[in-house]
Structure formats: C-alpha cells, structure tokens
Amino acid sequence: MRLVLSTFSLASLGGSETYLLTLANGLERLGHEVTVYATELGEMAIRARAGGTCVVGNEDALPAAPDALIVQDAVSSLELADRYPRVSQLFISHADAIDLQAPPQLPGLVAAVVVFNDRVQRRMRALAQPTEIVRMRQPVDIDWFAPSSSIHNTPQQLLVLSNYMRGQRREILEGVCGELGLRCHITGAHASPAADPRPGILAADIVVGYGRSILEAMACGRAAYVYDHKGGDGWVTPGSYPLLEADGFGGRATPQPLDAERLRSELTEYRPEMGIANRDLVVGMHSAHTHANDVVAVLRRLPRSARATGQPLRELARVTRRQWHAESRVAALMSENERLRSEVSRLHALADQHHAWGMGIFRTRRYRLGATLVRPLDALRNLAQKLRNR
To answer: Residue 32: its pLDDT value, please?
Structure first.
C-alpha cells in the first residue's frame, strides 16, 4: 500500500512523534510505501531522514493517490481530507485532554480511531461524532530499545525521563534520591533534552517517568517507576502491569497519593529481577512488529471514504493551528510563571533564614559581651568627634 503518515509537527522530541516514526519504520519493513508529512519540521524530522524514512514538509511532495492516510492530530486530518477527499483516514489519538489530538467532529472525515489506553478510549467514545474505536497497545522498537547490560543488585543511578517533571514533584524526587544515595539525572524539556533517550536509559538502574518513557525503559530491561506531573502509581511489575497499562502508564490508575514518604519507601523495594520481567512484558505485549501487522489489518478493511466535498476544511485547519499555537504559548507562560514563583519562594525563604540568623546573633551571650566591651570605645569616639567640631 501507498501510505501517508501525518502529524502537525516533527520539530521536537515527544511521545506522539516517536510513535509515528516507529510505525513508519514498521510499515516500511513490511514493504509498504510510506511518506511522512508534517507542516513543522525540525529535530525529529532530521532524525527520521537519517534513518531512511521519507519525510516531507510540502504538500506538493506528497503522492498523488495514496491508499490510506494515518493522522494523529486535527490539523493534519483536515488538511489531508481536503487534499484526498476519497481516501480513508485512520486517526491515532494519544491524549484525552488535548483537543488537537482528537478527530474533528465532522461526519465521514475519519473512518476509525486507534487508542492506546482505556482512558483515551472513554474520551473518544464520548465524542459527538460516532466513530469506530480500535484499542491497541503502545508499540516500542524492541530491537533498538534492548538491554546491553544487567542492572545492578543495588541501584546506583535513577533517570527521570520526562518533558514535564519540574517544580515541587521534581524537588521531592531529588530529595528522596539524595537520602537514598541515588544519583539522579533528569532528561527532558526542563532539564537536559536528548534526541536519543536510549544511552541515558541504559546508564540507569531505575527510570522514572510516564507514558512511552516507561515502555522504553522496560524494553531496555530497566526497573520502571511511574511518577510524573499528573501523579504516580509506583513500580511496574507483572502484577501491576494490567492496571497501569490500562491507564497508559499515566500516573492516574490508583487513588493513593504518591508523597515523599511513599516514594522513599517504594524505591527501597527495588529488585534487579524487575528489569528482566519488564523486558519480557514489552516483548510479549508491545512489539512494534506486531503493532504494524495490526495497523495494516485495520487499514485493509476500512471502507473507501465518501465524505462530502466543498467543506471549508482548509479554513478549519488554519483556525485549529492558530488555536494550538495560542494554547502552547499559554502553557509556556504558565510554566515560566511557575518557575518564577518557585524562585521567589526560594529567595523569600533564604531571606527569612538570613534574618533569623542575624536576630540569633543579637541574642547570643558572645554578642552581648562584645557590645559591653566596645561601649567605652564608642563613648571615647563620640567625645573626640565633638571636640573636633568645636
């Protein structure tokens, strides 16, 4: 089949971008002709081209008559629906709270929606426009994300693999790592971005994060701990896997809060056998090879699109794109505001500490003795000043 895989942006490293390139690689290995299209190109596009994937940023470079479209955001869906009105669309939805990653609510636009956890599945079923929902598991390239060595019997290094870990949650985790003697390294948008997370994963014994980062850690045979900006559910084990996978390893599968005390207690439960069990789970349940097979099976049974033409799809795409840019700016400003508030709080605490230290000096016996000894000298200095002024 001739397939177009499209996403709004391939500018930066992220879970949905990684998924699309993983799928593209899997489909190409099956012999399908794949073109990846994005309106915003950048680091991820460079990485994909280096791996041999055909990536284009201009519609003129797209094939004239593809057999199917795979899209994962509303902008791509609308633009390609306008260009290919008779070609079926398979929509990949990655989130339950991001409007851009939900299919446009127009009849006949999308033939089916793929979801990777029960939480997003419930969201897609609640949309106004009824569409077939296909539940799959998030795929991982198990050939690339593979263990090169075993993890230590006693953990030495913990990696936080997240674009969202910051603020108080980060401070709590770093504090607990310090207490337990764990080296803590953070990779992501708010720390040290990495185009390829694999070297950092393989250098760690424990990987903390959520979503796709957890699966990549498991594939590398690392102990994986779900904890990020929206909460935490703790260790991934064969027993906890079904519940955590149903939530997409999003940190919201269990109602118990994950505070410093629980974090400290659970990290001490680390066992090197966790890495072996995690690798086996991913190989059995999340192989990109199997996922590509399943996607092809869905594409082959989709009916040919019969959507109405003449709709203002391009204008809707433009408005959606502008809305997403505005929401992204708001999110960036909120993040900066949070950082500044944290810095102001830190400076206030530091000022209070210095004030308390200064007041403490005034109350010490040494200070009172010194003040008594220098009082006669102060009196002589004042007398000398008066004599000079006459």
So the answer is: 97
Pick from 241, 234, 199: which is nearest to 220 by CA? 199
| SS3 of residue 25 by DSSP | helix
Any idea what DSSP says for residue 309?
Answer: S
Residues 6+ apart with CB under 8 A from 107: 129, 307
Three-state SS at 373: helix
SS3 content of the chain, % helix, strand, coil (to 5): 50, 15, 35
**Host H or E run for residue 353:** helix 313-362
Do residues 203 and 157 make contact, with C-beta atoms less than 8 angstroms apart?
yes
DSSP readout, 73-114? SHHHHHHHHHH-TTS-EEEE---SS-GGGS--S-TTS-SEEE
In this prediction, residue 111 carries a pLDDT of 94
Give the containing element (helix H, strand E) for 134: strand 132-135
Please compute the mean of the pLDDT values over residues 134-163 and round it to a whole number.
Answer: 94
Strands (DSSP E) contained in 215-360 are 223-228, 231-235
Q: Report the run of H or E that residue 5 belongs to, with start and end.
A: strand 2-10
Q: Residue 358: pLDDT above 70?
A: no
Using CA atoms, how far apart are residues 146 and 143, in angstroms rounded to an integer? 6
- Please give the model's pTM, rounded to 2 decimal places: 0.80
Tokens of 264: 């400290």
Residue 385 CA to residue 390 CA, distance in Å, equals: 9
